[in-house]
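Listing S7. Sequence submitted for prediction.
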Amino acid sequence: MDLHGVGHHLLLCNGKSCIRNGAEAITEAIRRDIHDQSLTDTIHTTKTLCNGQCKYGPIVVLYPLGYWYRGMTPTLGKALVKSIGVQRPYKQPLLYSYARKGFQSELF
C-alpha cells in the first residue's frame, strides 16, 4: 500500500477485551465511514492486538496526534472520522493525549 498523502493513522484495538466489547463492529463501521466519506487516501487503519488499556476499551488511537480514545462505539467512530475529514479535533472520549513531555491522562 502506498501511504503517500496519508495524514492520519487509526490503530483499532481488536484484542480480546475490546472484541468482547464490540471492536469488530467498530472497525467495520470506521472503515465503512472512511470509504463513504472518500477519505481512503488520507486515513489509514490498522487492526491491532491488545493495547493494554482493556478496562477502557474498545480503544482507538489516532496518529500523528497521539490521541487515545476510550469506550469507542460505531457512533463515536463515525464522529471521529467526520472530525478528521473536516480537520477539527475530536476530543471525546479521550483516554490519553500526547504533549511535549509525553502522554498525559485525560481522565478526570
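Caption to Listing S7: primary sequence and predicted C-alpha cells for the chain studied. The helical segments are 16-20, 23-36, 74-85. The radius of gyration is 13 Å.
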